[in-house]
User: Fold this.
Amino acid sequence: MSEKCKKITEYRMYDLPQDIPAILLTGDEWYISSEVSSRLHFHNCTEIGFCHSGGGVIEFENKKCLAFNEGDIAIISKHIPHTTYSDKGAKSLWSYMFVDFSGILQDALSGGDIHEGAALFNKAKHPNIHYFAGCLMQELESKKSGWQQLFESVSLSLYYEFSRLHNEQSKSAAAPGSFMLKSALDYIRDNYMNPISIGELADICRFSESHFRRQFNSTMGTSPHDFITATRISRACILLSTTNSSILNIAEAVGMSSIASFNRNFKRIIGQSPREYRSTSSKSRLGNEHIIAYKGWMKAEERPSFVAGEDS
Assistant:
């Protein structure tokens, strides 16, 4: 049973701002303990981590690891399962940016794919990566006049520098492989508002439907159907918090088949009705309005209160 649990992967989803899809998590509380999680996790966007102090390991699938030290920057693309832990008996201090480079750079790259991978960058060996990433963090934290334009231009520089250096580091035996469910997760993210069949998702991953269901359940710890529902509910949370649309219209906009099904699943996942969530969201989510509380990290080392496939 314990071996089976280790295969489950948590999806930590961040709904980023529309104008500049990026958020920053920083402060003295962002310490990572030496306790090793029994589960890997992945994000729906690129994670850029700044290790301010301490050392430890970033572990990927198949026990592939990257050892980090104070001053390193980790860049991990979306849909790459991983976990981070500090050296035994110690805690490392981090800051994190979560960025959708495809959203920021889609015009500059003419719709090209964002290079994917995971790597650590030492400041002495890779000063450009540190300079560009540091500029992004500073602009995102200060948000001074014209910060959006600067963020876009520096993002492009970081993207090209990362792409250029990644091939060198990907030759390492510690470099993670591609996530077999990535194509299906991308499809769900882009098409959650439309009907989605399990057969479609299986075809995208080039699996039989039965094999896809087994693989999805064993990896994600939930069924494809429940994962799609959770994705729709997470999008509904954003609409409830940021628009005046009726609950019925929101249910339809996120692809729920009926208002009864929407209300029932919303209550099951969030623990509140859509109406209750809307009335309290502006206060309870102030300052973190782009982080889904039941999936994304709200505070360092806080386990998400909802994990797909578990009872809330």
